[in-house]
Amino acid sequence: MYKIPGKLLKLFRSFLNNRSVILEDGSKWNYNIGVPQGSSCGPILWLIVANEALKMFPEQSDTLVQAFADDFVILIKASASYKFSEISKNLISCFELWAGRFNLRFSENKTKYIMFKARKNITHFPGIHLYGKRIGHTNELKYLGIIFDPNYSFMTHLQRVQEK
Questions:
Q1: Which residue intervals define the domain Reverse transcriptase in the entry (predicted)?
Q2: pLDDT by residue (tens digit) across 31-68?
Q3: Bridge partners, 20 (sequence order)
């Protein structure tokens, strides 16, 4: 897959394996998941992992998958709710498999979806599932500091900015 020199690979393995933290009560907790927070190598290691996910989803006319840091966003264009359900089910299934490969897990509680209106009001909000648990539909979605709403109006975003 990647041609990494042996010594560099050994260095990264030692960096990522057999790690531990000392908890407030003085006990030691060992872990081997994720990338150490605040490390100088952390961002590049995460980019390598995240890039594996993005390569699974080449841009198509009805879908776009993007990432910024550890936030992913999936945009789906569908003319009907059932099509939206079908496409999202396939994409989420791929994401679950990718996450499992890297011993990661998405938060069902933080994962939300919003449906943007095309011409008429949306009357049916499909059940979208992550790890078998239904994820919530929302009328406001904050991504990269911008609040999106179903009407593309940005009024909620402007009101929140004005309140600050």
A1: 1-130
A2: 777 677 777 777 888 888 888 889 888 878 888 898 88
A3: 30
Angle between helices 42-55 and 81-101 (to 10 degrees): 140
Q: Which pair of structure tokens corresponds to residue 30?
A: 């060992």
The pTM is what?
Answer: 0.73
Q: Kindly report the CA angle at 41 between 35 and 47, in degrees rounded to 5?
A: 70
Dist CA 44 CA 55 (whole Å): 16
Please choose, from the candidates 56, 78, 77, 74, the residue with its C-alpha nearest in 3D space to the C-alpha of residue 65: 74
Q: Where are the domains of the chain?
A: 6-163
In the numeric block, which tokens belong to residue 143? 């991504």
Task: Say how many C-beta atoms besides its own lie within 10 A of residue 95's C-beta.
Answer: 20
